[in-house]
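Quick start: what a row looks like.
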Amino acid sequence: MKTAIVTGTSRGIGQAVALRLLSLGYKVYGISRTGNIGAIGHENFVSVCCDLLDTEKLIRVVEGIVADAGGIDLLINNAGVGCFGPHEQLDVYELRTMMRTNLEAPVILCRLLLRDLKKSHGQIINMSSVTAKKISTHGCAYAATKAGLSHFSESLFEEVRKSGVRVTTLQPDITRSGFYDPLDFTWSEDEDTSILPDQVADAVEYIITAGDNLAVQEITLRPRKNQIRRKTPGEPCARE
């Protein structure tokens, strides 16, 4: 049985990806700050409660997972935080949390697991964003974290490809998930203006089943139409 580590599995894309991996016969260690309480009920799902920003604990957790599993075949860095608005108005501590969650934690997890992934000729999928490749006013810091993650993924692939490790950047556009709960904007009700978590999971399934001779370096997923909706008063928009 192959083993995967997925971050941010308590909801949205992470939960959809974890469920898809379980359906494909993986044992999944789901890391989230809330511990995935009641989110996924499956005998091959192991809920791991860990704040990715607690580096010392993260190191211990990863060591424990590797010891328990006997090796790792797949790492999916999915957990992410969004902080949007005029840059001069953003909270400094929220910015720090976003930068550490979106870029620092994936880089550290890749470092901690790379030797084990080389042994298994495994795969890394880093969940970036369509904003990594475009100008993003009122989201310039968020876009910078995702651009950094995308560039890191491209460079890491070139560094490790001789060892058989594959590294993929997956860049979804606006997705119907809890990511937007603390924000003041969300997807439009028009179905073709957003994508679904299961569609991101479809892309993950393609990446990991495409064939041993093939390395899928990058996939960008976008809805057919480009449209967002500003939330009305009373809708959830306070920062988490």
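That is the whole record. The first strand starts at residue 3 and ends at 7. Helices lie at 12-23, 55-69, 92-120, 140-160, 197-209.
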